[in-house]
């Protein structure tokens, strides 16, 4: 398991304002794909997962990741409503 512990590495991670606390993780996946996970930092564990083909454009990837953020935002809002 990788660990992000150095201040130098933490300083290189972009931080985005949001209505929820979450972290993005990426790693290589099978068949030359790349896996991305958006993990909610809360008492209840919840994460969204998507894989991308090697030839997908960065624009397409950003669109999908934005959709994942919206889905997580909806999940958090529904959880707060009870």
Write structural notes for this entry:
The chain is of the alpha+beta class and 82 residues long. It has one domain (11-81). 35% of the residues lie in helices and 27% in strands. The chain has two helices and three strands. It has helices spanning 7-11, 58-81; strands spanning 22-29, 33-40, 47-52. It has a three-stranded antiparallel β-sheet with strand order 1-2-3, with helices on one face. A hairpin with a 6-residue loop joins strand 2 (33-40) and strand 3. The protein is elongated. The N and C termini lie far apart (34 Å). The model has no long low-confidence stretch (mean pLDDT 85).
Q: Could you name the ranges where pLDDT drops below 50 across 5 or more consecutive residues?
A: none
Give the strand line-up of the largest sheet. 1-2-3
- SSE topology string: HEEEH
What oligomeric arrangement do these chains adopt? single chain
SS content category: alpha+beta
Number of domains: 1
Helix proportion: 25-40%
Biggest sheet character: 3 strands, antiparallel
Shape: elongated
- Number of helical segments with 4 or more residues: 2
Residue fraction in strands: 25-35%
Radius of gyration: 14 Å
What is the tally of beta strands? 3
Mean pLDDT: 85
Instruction: Tell me the distance between the termini.
Output: 34 Å
């Amino acid at each position: 398991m990788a660990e992000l512990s150095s201040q130098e590495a933490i300083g290189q991670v972009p931080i985005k304002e949001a209505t929820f606390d979450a972290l993005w993780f990426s790693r290589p996946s099978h068949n030359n794909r790349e896996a991305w996970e958006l993990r909610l930092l809360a008492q209840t564990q919840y994460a969204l997962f998507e894989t991308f083909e090697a030839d997908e454009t960065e624009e397409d990837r950003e669109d999908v990741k934005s959709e994942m953020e919206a889905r997580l935002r909806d999940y958090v809002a529904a959880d707060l409503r009870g």
